[in-house]
Amino acid sequence: MRPRRLMRGAALAGGAALGAAALAPLVDLLTLLLIALLRSHSQDPPVLLPEGAFALPRTRAEAPTHPGVVTVDIGPEGLWLDGFRLGPASALTRGAGRLDLLYAPLLQRSKGPLVLRADAAVPWSSLERALLTAREAGFVEVELVAERAGSL
What we know:
By secondary structure, the protein is α/β, with parallel strands linked by helices.
């Protein structure tokens, strides 16, 4: 009895055609690769911190952020709005009340949710001024972000 061939006329270097038995391990391997890629994919955008030594305070609760939110980052080296540096950290300690450095750019943003991320070493007075500035710029929904303890 003559063996059946998967691809007739297409011969390999040795003269034998690629058989169905040779394709089974390849299909299994591609299936496993596809499953691994799908499991590693996430719908959430990656967290990009503006400074290398940026340490968020730790918490046990986690609330995912939504696309289109305005993000304010306060670190020991400066102030950022949606990933763009607005100024040095010394601007946070000068004066009292509203942060004029942050106020003007916040007025130009849509008034959706605002996420405020601050380094653990940033004093509360700086966070308080940023919260006041966000409120005066018209933001009603403001979230303070802390690092989830389980992510360490």
